[in-house]
Structure formats: C-alpha cells, structure tokens
Amino acid sequence: MPRILRLPRSPLAWTALAMLAPLLLLAALGPFLWGEAADRPDVTAVLEGPSLTHPFGTDNLGRDLLARVLTATRLSLLLACAATLLSAGAGILLGASTAVLAGRARRWLGALITLLLAFPGLLVAIFLAVVFGAGATGALLALAVAGVPGSARLAQTLAAGVAGTDHLAAARVLGLRRHRLILRHVLPNIAEPLLLSTTTAAGTALIALSGLSFLGLGVQPPAYDWGRLLGQGLDRIYAQPLPALAPGLAVLYAALTFQLLGEALAGGAARRPHRAPAPPAPPAPPAPPAPPAVGEPAGGDEVLRIDDLTVELPTPDGVIRPVRDVSLTLHAGEIVGLVGESGSGKSLTALAIADLLPAQARVSRRTHRLLGTELTALPAKERDRHLATTLAMVFQNPASALNPALRVDTQLTEAVRAHRGAGRTAAAAQAVHALRRVALPPALLRSRPHQLSGGQRQCVLIAAGLMVRPGLIIADEPTTALDVTVQRQVTDLLAAVRRESGTAVLFISHDLALVAGLCDRVLVMYAGTVVESLPTDRLADSARHPYTRALVESVPRLTADRGQPLRTVEGSPPDPLAPPPGCPFQPRCAHRRDRCAAEAPALTGLDADHRVACWHPLPAPATAGA
Amino acid sequence: MTLLQVADLTVRHHGPHGPVTAVDGVSLEIPAGRTLGLVGESGSGKSSLARALVGLSPVHSGRVLLDGRAAGGRTLRARRRLGRRVQVVFQDPDTALDPRMTVRQTLAEAATAFRRLDRPARAERVAGLLDLVGLDPQLAGRLPRQLSGGQRQRVAIARALAVEPALLIADEITSALDVSVQAAVLNTIRDLQRRLGLAMLFIGHNLPAVCHVSDAVAVMYRGRIVESAPTADLLRAPRHPYTRALLAAVPGLPPAPPPPDAAPLPLAAAEAAAPAGGCRFAALCPVGPARHAERTVCTERDPQPGAAERPHRAACHFPPDPDTPGPFRPGPDTPEDERS
C-alpha cells in the first residue's frame, strides 16, 4: 500500500482533511439542499443586501446568494478537478514516454515539451478559451491543455531517474511492450511526487477557472460557478461588498485546501516508512577515567595508538554500535591493513581516528594518541590543528574528494598556508615537490580536477596529504574506484612514501589480496570488532579465525583449480540493531560450540604478532617442510 | 556450433564533442554452452559492447549473428526475437530490480514475457527459478529493499534465466559485491553453466573472477579486443603486452613478485592520445617504440587486421615467443574437460 494513503499523523494533514471534508460534503449535497432556493427568483427582493432571510443578499433576479455560493461548489470543484486530471493525465503520459522511447524520438519529445513550456500558461488558457468558445467545456479544455507542459516536464524529469536504472534496461531486454514498461515500471516509481504536485495543481486550476468565468470566458448563464458569482457581485462591490466577497472567499478556501493537502501528502511521503519511534538514546558509556600513564610510555616510533574505540550512531530504528572496543597501534614506517566487508565498521574506525565522524555520532575511547599527543585531553581547536598537521586522509572516491571549482595548486597549498603559515611562493615550491614525489608533472598544478584521470586525482590527493609532512596517512579504499593497473601504481606510491619518509599508513580495503601485497600487518574486522590481527605473510594460509580463513578462501585466484567452488560464508552479517549474544560471528560459524553464544571472545595473543578473538581458533597448518 | 558471432562491430555514442567510438571493430564468437570472459578497464568499451549486443545501444556498423542469423533491428518483433535468446544482468544491485515489485512479480513478469503460464504454473516457475540461483523460495514475497546486495543480484540472474535464454550476458555483476558474496555469486554462475549448458559473455575488470568462470578470455583496450585465447593459454603465455601488464598488476594471495618484463606503465602517460592508424597501446607499451625506437611500425600500422592469423589472436606486431611464460601458472582446469 502506498505510504501516502496511510493515516496521517501531522497536524498539517489533519487540518487539510478537516478543511477538505466540508468541501466534499457541499459538493455532494449542496445542489440537493439549496439548489431549489438558489434558482428561485423573487421579484420582491431584487439586489438586496444581507438580511436575516438572505445572509449574503440576493442577485438581480432576487435569488439567494448564500444558496448560490453553496450550490456552486459542485460545479467549481468538478471543473477544476477535471481540468487538472486531464492535463496531468496527458502531461504524465507525454513525460513518462520519454523514458521508454529511444534515441531520436526521445530527443524530439523532450524538445517539444521544452518548447511548450516557453508559453505562459494562463495566457495560453485565455487564448484557447476564446478559440474553443466561451463556455464551461471550452474553459475546461483550455486549462487542461495549458497545464500539460508543466506536468509533462515534471514527469519527464522524474522518469529520467527511472530510465537510467538497470531494471528498466532489463525489462526492455525482456522485450516488454512500451505501454507495459510505462504502466508497470515507470509510473509506479514516479507516482508519488506526481500525485502531490497534481493535488497542488488542482488549487491553481480552480483559481484559473474562476478567473476565466469571471472574465466571461468560462461558465455561461444560466449555469454558474464561483467565478461567475464573483463577476456578478463585483458590479456593486462598493454598495454591498458581501455578494462579491463570499464567492471570492470560497475560491480562496478551496484553493488553500488543495494546497495544504498537497503539502500534507508531500510531508507524509518524505517521512520514512512506518517505523517504531527510536527509543531515547542510552547515555554514552561513561568514559573511563583516563588512566594516568598506564601502559608503556609512548614508544619512540609509535605514531597512533587508540584503545577501546566505540562509536554509537543513532538511526531511526534505534542506536547502533558499528564500532566496538577497537584498539590499534601504528608505528612509524608501518603499513597496516584494515580489512572487512561492507558494514564491518572499518571506515567509521578511520573517521573516528581523524575525528571526522558525523555530529550525531558518539565516540568513546580510552586513549587516542597521535604522534605522542593525547587528543582526548586537548581542546577541540587544538585537536583539529594537531590532526590537520599530522594526519592525511585519502578517500575512496577521488572524483568527490577534490573541490571541482578550485585549481590543483590551491587545494595542495591550502593546508600548509592555513596551519603552517607558509607564504605563497614557499607553498607553491612545496606543491611542486609534492607532485614530483607522486610522479606527476608540475604542469598539473594549474589544472582543475575534471581535467585529471581518476588515478591522477588519487595521486593529487596523496600529494596534498604529503604537503603537511604527516606522520600518518589513512587511505580509505583508495583504489576501489580505479582500474587494476592504476591501482598498482597508487599502492606502489604509498609504499614509496612509507619507505622514503617513514610515514605510517593505515590502509583500509575489502580486497584481501591487495592488502596482502602491500601491508605489514592486517587487522580483520567483522561486525564492528577486530577478530584477528596478524602479519600479512600469514594471511594466505595461517589465519586462525574461521571468518578470516573463509574470507581468504573466498577470493578467486588465477592459479586456483577452476573446478572447485569458491568458499562462501553461509548466512549474512548480524543486524546491527540486534547483535547476537557472544561472538558476533557465531551464528555463521561452522566451528561454534556452546561457549561461543554465551560469551564474546576478547582479542588475545597467540604469539607476539598474532592475536585472535575466538574461543576455538582453527589449528595452524603444518609449517612448510614438516 | 557458434551461438553468437560478432563481426567488426562498431558502437558510437553522442558525446558533447561529437561522436565517441566506444567499440571499434570488435569481432568475437561464443560457441553454444561456452563462456567468454571479457576484461578491460573502465572506459574500454565492455559495457557498450554488451548494451549493443542486447539492442540497448544502436550499432553503428558491423554484424551480430545469433544462431547464424542476423540479430538486432529496431522493431519490437526483432527485439523480442533477440530477447528470447539473449538476456543480460547488470552491475548495480541497487537498481537491478524494480523497487515497487516483489521478487515474485519481477520473476513472474519475466517468465510470462514470451509464453503464457497459468497461476499455479507461474508460482511453480518462480519457486523453481529462485531455487536455481540458490535462493530460498520464501523470499518471493519480499521487496528489493528487503534483500541484500547479493540476493538482489541473484534475483536479477533468475529474472534473466526466466526466459530460458541461450546466452546470458553478465556485465560486471559482482563488482559491487563483497568478496564472500562475490564468491557465492560466482559459484552460482559455475553451477548454472554446468546445469543448464548456458553460454555466457562474462564481463568484468576483476581478472581472477572473470577467469574463474570463463572458458576463453578476451582482453579489451580502448574499444578494441587486443587478445583473446582460451583461459589457460592466456594465463600461461599472454601474448599482448597489455595483457601482460594487466596480469602483472593483479594482486595475488599470497602475493607474487611482479615479473621483470611487465614494468608498470607510467601514470603520467596514461592519458596519451592514440596515434592515428597505429596501435593504441604504443605510447605505453613496454615492447613498443617508447622503449625500442626502431619499432616505428607500431605507430604506423594497425596490428588489428592481422590478429586472427597470429598465435592466439594477439593484436601486437611483436608478440613474445610462444614459450614465454606469463606471470601466473594457471591451476588445473577440470571443468572444461568435464563439460565437453
């Protein structure tokens, strides 16, 4: 059932409904109740002002104006709705057709709609009303035609969104006929916004029709609508304002009702589908008192240390904890991989380290030390400054990570000029140097991001990061959007930067093979926790956590036996709203035992370099040669 | 028997600066029941080729023969004749299914596209299709937003299989999926090849994934197919320098040392324009005029025409000796023998 037909909740919607109900009642019953009184002439009471018997007065034949206004509701609304439906129907059909027409036909239709839009609607309506001949039908048709381009353009724009989708392409390949494509695949997907705009358009149509009647181009006597009554009342507005005001107010009321109704529908459609209201966010776990210098003093080459990082995010369905008790340490000149599948929390971990999480996220961590400075103890302004000068981020999508309006040199020099107070020339010289390091010609400085290829953009981002001589580079899926040969160049570049300046790199990826080739150490994340931490040379065959092992075996290899199916993991990752008890991987684990569902295993060391969060780690394979 | 034969196919798009040739004189064949993998980087024309084959993009020139008869044409009749034999699955699991239709409606629509089915037969067909792609028939009542990305891709595969096509075109169907989900979809594909004898054109940029499901692989570069060969041959002894560079760039698990002769291509030159009339890879080629000044033939003569006569169809004037091994030794290749 479409969302907009559900019971409304907002006061706006109730107001709209409350205003609509009397209108509908009047339209349905008015002519029966007052129709006779409205048409009964009374020569004894011609052109009377308001009185007890005739609250709004009478017209030139002595007919009661109140009864006439009430009776006119039906005709006025019917005409407005009919005109709206006709123009919306024709317009939507035209507009939606552009989604299923091919090549030239589509371009012609689009051009036609644009051309029609250039004529002002009301002028066209008046012109057509004259052409069609004064009368209700003429006015109706004139307005309907005048409204077509607007709704066609809206439908065309909405349909363009559907036209690019894979499911429409698949339906065309299935050989479905065009009318079926429109009815089944295009219209249902654009119906909601169209319905909203059509409702609002009905209000406009009502006013326009009243205007035509008022000008004498619409409803002709003896029939009458609000516009006609308004026109008749206007002659004596200075003597008696009410006969003119009453139909005017009726038009206003009805138009307002349609407008409100459209707004209420739009509001209802914009809200998320039915969801339970979010429970109030539980208070963040109290930050444990900072342990005064517990643990080893910051080692000389420790770049980053973060302990017990937990991130909470409020969602419409409740608070989720996409990162739970993650600890990691990076040393100078180390490349550490953070791997996991989508939703495992790896990107949020990176954002938390860089203090870039969205404002509504709650972060708690025991230690957050970057190059010897404890960030949790710093005021926000100094923390930002420290982060800006010691840490560089490289994001997944190089197309959106650079500002398309600024030249490369501006973006490269921004950070050093802001934080290091470097002069223009000094910064420019640094920028040239930084570009050289990423093997790009200095000529690129004067170009804009759209002139660069994807790989070049990613290298520019890395160069921008190098400008501040960072101690840590966080690369969040930096090569996912790139081709494999370009990917190789970007990873080679990161390795070279590490080698030359001892920068630590946190490399986040879902590609195990890529991480294995580049990193020294790998942390494997699953459902917000680190499940295993091991040296990369053990990743291929000595992983001990069942999830890591399954992940490794699910990667297709060029050298593998193609007859063997790839390893898969049954089931799907846990619902972040209802994490399973105990080990997060336990519902999908082939090796689970009773304890796994009862208690969550902590990350414990198997040896100096290898830690795993599992109660029953897989046996290590026999070492080579044994 | 050759199911699909493409000869000298050219596809042009309208670009802001005039027509852009996305596919330039491509020829390929797919025998019945066999899978051809098509790899190449973004912008190499893979998807344009796929869209042209199923009639979604107009063909500029060239021929597409299906079962030996010319396919294509703009009439609905021609489209339906093509759709009955060739179906396609696209990359994006988010838009692959109509968000307003349940899985049941989507599959029933496809199953009744070419024949009438009464209500019980339709329900049975939907359940059968879901089972075919390894999904629980209980999912039939769900809407796409209630499915995971992998599940949606499988429903899209089931929709394509509903018309029982002879050829399935898979355009980057696992690119947007996580590795473990990709593995499940690849397994489903292998299973379908075996059970249905389905011929496929499997397009992707992930070489290991494409090679895993393909009997033969064609490598595409800037609108051209530069090399095509049986999968094992291509992995064992790639003949085109671009193929070698591509293979060398694939990260391995465990990591393999990069072979010495496939030096990484300089990034700065990646945008270099192709010389008119010559080989498109010449500017970047490790065996071309950039390294060997005397090999001017690369910039003067197009290596394409002679490709069919060269050993396993490499469009290169200087292919290495047939015995030069590639960076990878392919694993045993049991399924080919199994199926033939």
Q: Topology of this protein?
A:
The complex is a heterodimer of chains A (626) and B (340).
Chain A: H1 11-39, H2 65-100, H3 103-117, H4 121-132, H5 136-163, H6 166-173, H7 178-214, H8 226-234, H9 242-270, E1 302-315, E2 318-331, E3 335-339, H10 346-353, E4 362-364, E5 367-370, E6 373-374, H11 380-390, E7 391-394, H12 398-401, H13 408-419, H14 424-437, H15 454-467, E8 472-476, H16 484-501, E9 504-509, H17 512-518, E10 521-526, E11 529-535, H18 546-553, H19 594-598, E12 604-605, E13 611-612
Parallel strand pairs in A: 3-9, 3-10, 7-8, 8-9
Antiparallel strand pairs in A: 1-2, 1-4, 1-5, 5-6, 10-11, 11-13, 12-13
Helix pairs in contact in A: 1-2, 1-9, 2-3, 2-5, 2-7, 2-9, 3-5, 4-5, 5-7, 6-7, 7-8, 7-9, 8-9, 13-14, 13-15, 14-15, 15-16
Chain B: E1 2-15, E2 18-31, E3 35-39, H1 46-53, E4 61-66, E5 69-70, H2 76-85, E6 86-89, H3 103-111, H4 119-132, H5 149-161, E7 167-171, H6 179-196, E8 199-204, H7 207-213, E9 216-221, E10 224-230, H8 231-236, H9 241-249, H10 297-300, H11 334-339
Parallel strand pairs in B: 3-8, 3-9, 6-7, 7-8
Antiparallel strand pairs in B: 1-2, 1-4, 4-5, 9-10
Helix pairs in contact in B: 3-4, 3-5, 5-6
Can you tell me about this structure?
By secondary structure, chain A is α/β, with parallel strands linked by helices. In chain A, 49% of the residues lie in helices and 12% in strands. Chain A has 19 helices and 13 strands. Chain A has helices at residues 11-39, 65-100, 103-117, 121-132, 136-163, 166-173, 178-214, 226-234, 242-270, 346-353, 380-390, 398-401, 408-419, 424-437, 454-467, 484-501, 512-518, 546-553, 594-598, and strands at 302-315, 318-331, 335-339, 362-364, 367-370, 373-374, 391-394, 472-476, 504-509, 521-526, 529-535, 604-605, 611-612. Chain A has an eight-stranded mixed sheet, with helices on both faces. In chain A, strands 1, 2, 4, 5 and 6 form a five-stranded antiparallel sheet that branches. Chain A starts with 10 loop residues before the first helix and ends in a 14-residue tail after the last strand. Chain B has two domains: 2-221, P-loop containing nucleotide triphosphate hydrolases (Rossmann fold, 3-Layer(aba) Sandwich), CATH 3.40.50.300; 243-321, no CATH class. Chain B has helices at residues 46-53, 76-85, 103-111, 119-132, 149-161, 179-196, 207-213, 231-236, 241-249, 297-300, 334-339, and strands at 2-15, 18-31, 35-39, 61-66, 69-70, 86-89, 167-171, 199-204, 216-221, 224-230. In chain B, a hairpin with a 2-residue loop joins strand 1 and strand 2.
